[in-house]
Amino acid sequence: MVVKMIWLFFIYAFIGWVMETVYATGKKKRFVNRGLLDGPLCTIYGFAGVLLTWSLQELRGNWLFLFLGSMIYATVLEWIAGHILEWSRYGRWWDYSDVKWNLDGYICLPYSVLWGVLGLAAVQWGSPFFLKLYGMVPKTGRDIALWIFIILTVIDGVGSLIALYGRQGTMPRLEKVDSQITRITRKLQDWISYTARKRLEKAHMEPKPVTVQNKEASVVFAQGAGFYKIFLLFVIGAFLGDVTETIFCYVTAGVLMSRSSVVWGPFSLVWGIALAMATALLYKYKDRSDRFLFLVGTFLGGAYEYLCSVFTEICFGTVFWDYSHIPFNLGGRINLLYCFFWGIAAVVWIKGLYPHFSRWIEKIPMKQGKIITWFLVLFMTANVAVSAMALARYDQRSEGIAAESSWQEYMDLHYGDEVMRRIYPNAVKAE
Prior knowledge:
Shape: globular
Helix content: 55-70%
């Protein structure tokens, strides 16, 4: 599966490069390489092609929902990519501000409709054809070709990173260790940096560089919406989400059951990731209207929940929730009512709760805050890793696979079927 997705990534990245380059060349009346890398690849198209194929393949044949799903996922991906590229030293690489129905120039309705059409075509016809073509190529030949593509892309990526973040002359000069190899390496870096910068400037209409200013270090812990605050909100959201779902199940069904996503502690990763992503993506729009936040939260929440459902079923062979009994559902993965709940949650969080949580986090002393955050990073990383192994072994046991390695024996001993059913009472083996 992974190898096939890599194959599709290169195909769609190349197709995207061709489309973007043809459009830009026709507009400027000269050849323009529109890829992020020097090679003939437009990586955002590669990621979009893989994401849509992987998450929406079960919607093939349902053209309406396949179009809507493709439009939403591709638009969100373009929105996130636009923010990431603007945060880089090369600033904004595209701007739809002059197009009607745009959002801060990052995305716009006409292009979102176009992405929906392209995504529908890719999932419905493109990916099956390319995967069939992949199966026709001899294994040795396709493996060699794939590794060549990967190696060249990595080299190309390193060169582009040097172009974006490396500066000629910034490397400290240590005379005692300044060997001939070091001098050659510097010259190679300078050459890559120069050529890549020139190509990027020509391809992207001289994007505005981000001015780096010397600012005094902030004395406030986790100020703004940086890593420390986002991660702590992830942990808080995971805990509160688990508690909320547990209470909801008790009130509505009269049953007290675990709603945790992990084996250690009451943490629902779906809620934690949702809260962190909502903060990171909507922080810039915290002063916009409630209606705007509701609509964005509805679409983002529905797309996110659908993606989580597909991910857990493919990776662990388990369905953790099923909305088939609720009206207006899509494959039992999402339903209209709960999508509205996501929209309401976005408004309540950004307008009502986030300012309070933000102030509480910023009151933590700087040193203690960093220590707490990195402790939680290590804890949650280990927690997710152990949970993934426990779920994988749980799936293996259901298929009658005997323990052959030490990790399987450890999981059988500490996370047997009874323990897993208690932690994941709603987990059902996917058919």
